[in-house]
Amino acid sequence: MKNKVEGVTLVALTITVVVLIIIAGISFYSGRETIQKAKLEELKTNMLLIQAKAREYVEEVNFKMGIGTEEQKNERKVTARQEVYEQQQGLQKASNVPDYITDADSCYELTQETQEKWGLTKMELGKDERYLIQFDETNIRVEIYNTKGYDGRYSLTEIDGLE
């Protein structure tokens, strides 16, 4: 009489478990990396949309400032900013401006009202997260900041340089 043993040996079972653990580790790491890239792209897209809309209003402020000496333009700049950015678009002057923003006077906060007016309703903000817009009418330049940031970077220029 022969003893015929059928089944899985302990060695085969151990090898199978080790292989499954390795595959799970690889997929977990690549999945986490994909999620991080998606969050970065979402942040960049939101910031680019805000920048595109804000540039329109820089042009409008420049138009309202009109032609004249720098002194005359500077006098009209305050009125034009208030009219276009605050009254017309619903932006509010940024309060508690972070240290990494140099010119707090030209910095506005994107409000919920403005988000809806600009058609950016699907943009979700986390707790204590704000989008700040810094206008530079002279150079027709707009810089967008996110107070949450990404990897220690807060401005669109810095974030756009990331891969």
Shape descriptor reads rod-shaped
Distance between the termini: 69 Å
Detail the poorly predicted runs. none
Largest sheet: 5 strands, antiparallel
Q: Which class of secondary structure composition applies to the elements?
A: alpha+beta
Portion of residues within helices: 40-55%
Number of strands: 5
User: What is the total domain count?
Assistant: 1
Approximately what portion of the residues adopt beta-strand conformation? 5-15%
C-alpha Rg, in Å?
A: 27 Å
Counted by DSSP, the helix tally is: 4
- Averaged pLDDT: 84
Q: Give the SSE string.
A: HHEEHEEEH
Oligomer: single chain
Strand order, sheet with most strands = 1-2-3-4-5
What is shown here, in short?
By secondary structure, the chain is α+β, with helices and mostly antiparallel strands. It has helices at residues 10-65, 70-88, 112-117, 156-160; strands at 92-93, 107-109, 131-136, 141-150, 153-155. The N and C termini lie far apart (69 Å).
